[in-house]
Amino acid sequence: MPALQSIDAVPGAPEALARVQLSAIPDDKPMLRAAAELTRDIARARPEIYWPDMIGSALVGYAALAGTILVDNVWLALALGVLSVLTLYRALLFIHEISHMHRDALPGFRTAWNALVGVPMLTPSFMYEGVHPLHHARTRYGTGEDPEYLPLALMKPWSLPVFLLVALLAPPALVIRFAILTPLGLLIPPLRTLTWERFSSLAINPAFRRRPAEGEMKRRFLIQELACSAWAIALIGSIFAFGWRPLLIALGVASAVAVFNQLRTLVAHLWENDGEAMTVTAQYLDSVNVPPPGIMAGLWAPVGLRYHALHHMLPSLPYHSLGEAHRRIAARLGSDSTLQRADHKGMMPLVVRIARSTMGRH
């Protein structure tokens, strides 16, 4: 593996990854084979983990949000607001699991999640289903056809704060999208087409255009969209019954969730690909694991996303199995393996690395 050897020859290999063109890195077949062999017995989604985790996170999040709105003590309201952000963020990230889930894996889970989380937070599962799998496609990852990839490390320094701050606008934008654009789109077909192509995906690539849904997915997605439209209109109507304060607080919490998720997205990859197609191993090395002993990653990258690189190697593995999978593969391959080159210590070193990369190129 000459490309990987050239990485090894540079002190501090992970930080020097950009010196090797990612598209030139071949697959580490022993690692991929070990990953497949060692995880076969933990590949089943366990309902006794999924259901309590999702429902408990959502209920605690809504209870804390209600407390944030209702209590008079500023510090208590702030503490409840933080709790609401963390738990609703965790509940929301099950959309990632749903996008990879086989339709027969957890009967009723997708519907329950949409009713409890997706519709109330105006982020139904259709915004990820049929979109996120494109990010894992062998020939799309890191290219212009990837809806979830921007070469942020190769862009100008101002792109990073813009990337984060734009997330603040996501909740009010979703209210407008569902309360106004959805009803108008039913009357104006060109607007409907534009809304679907541009404003119906959790994508960060501004060039991405979503194709029309087909078959059973079209009917299911329409039901989700109409439910979100009704809820968004009800949120606007709540102003007349309860005033502005409850809605503004809820939107503030939702904006904090969106920014938190955008910050996680910023450090989910190294964003160093130049647009060429890559091997699975190259995709893995352009992605990030933040394994224990650190505990903070469990808060900012919950539901298995602290093992984002491993997830790109094993996209169908359920979130509750990723930690065990990482331990098994590491034990098999040893400390000097390709597996370890995607392991990082935490969020801030990754933010600094990406920021330095942008400044060093301009």
TrEMBL record:
Keywords: Membrane, Transmembrane, Transmembrane helix. InterPro entries: FA_desaturase_dom (IPR005804), Fatty_acid_desaturase (IPR012171). It holds the Pfam family FA_desaturase. The keyword Membrane applies. Signal peptide: none annotated. CDD domains: Membrane-FADS-like. One of its GO terms (cellular component) is membrane. The chain crosses the membrane at residues 49-69, 75-95, 107-128, 162-188, 221-241. One of its GO terms (biological process) is lipid biosynthetic process. Residues 74-334 form the Fatty acid desaturase domain. One of its GO terms (molecular function) is oxidoreductase activity, acting on paired donors, with oxidation of a pair of donors resulting in the reduction of molecular oxygen to two molecules of water. This is Fatty acid desaturase. It comes from Croceibacterium xixiisoli.
